[in-house]
């Protein structure tokens, strides 16, 4: 009976040690935790909000938001302002094209 209690207590202490050693980040505006085989911290982007701002003056805002969302998800960047400044996001954003070989990202 005493060995069972000791074994149970050891397992509980081990589980508590595992739970307390996990990485926790409360500030979701700056970083998010990516779990899996390759654990790393990635910058968190609000693609919806950034693209809404980017496409606010566009003549076709729904089309612009859809394309901007795809580009934001793939390139992890949305240029500042409502137009131009595409170079601020690098070659991923500037080189992405549609099936018709036109630039995809607004």
Describe the secondary-structure layout.
Blueprint: H1 2-20, E1 31-34, E2 40-43, H2 47-54, H3 61-75, H4 91-95
Antiparallel strand pairs: 1-2
Helix pairs in contact: 2-3
Could you explain the architecture of this structure?
- The chain has 106 residues and is mostly helical.
- It has four helices and two strands.
- It has a two-stranded antiparallel sheet.
- Strand 1 and strand 2 form a beta hairpin.
- The longest helix is centred in the first third of the chain and has 19 residues, at 2-20.
- Mean pLDDT is 79; it is low at 23-34.
Please name the defining characteristics of this protein.
106 residues, two-stranded antiparallel ribbon, 4 helices, 2 strands, mainly alpha, 44% helix, Gibberellin regulated protein
């Amino acid at each position: 009976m005493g060995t069972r209690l000791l074994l149970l207590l050891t397992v509980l202490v081990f589980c508590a040690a595992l739970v307390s050693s996990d990485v926790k980040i409360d500030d979701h505006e700056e970083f998010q935790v990516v779990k899996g085989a390759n654990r790393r911290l990635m910058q968190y982007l609000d693609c919806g909000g950034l693209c809404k701002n980017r496409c606010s003056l566009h003549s076709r805002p729904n089309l612009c938001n859809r394309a901007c969302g795809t580009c934001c998800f793939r390139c992890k960047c949305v240029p500042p302002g409502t137009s131009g400044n595409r170079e601020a996001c690098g070659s991923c954003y500037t080189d992405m094209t549609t099936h018709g070989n036109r630039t995809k990202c607004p």
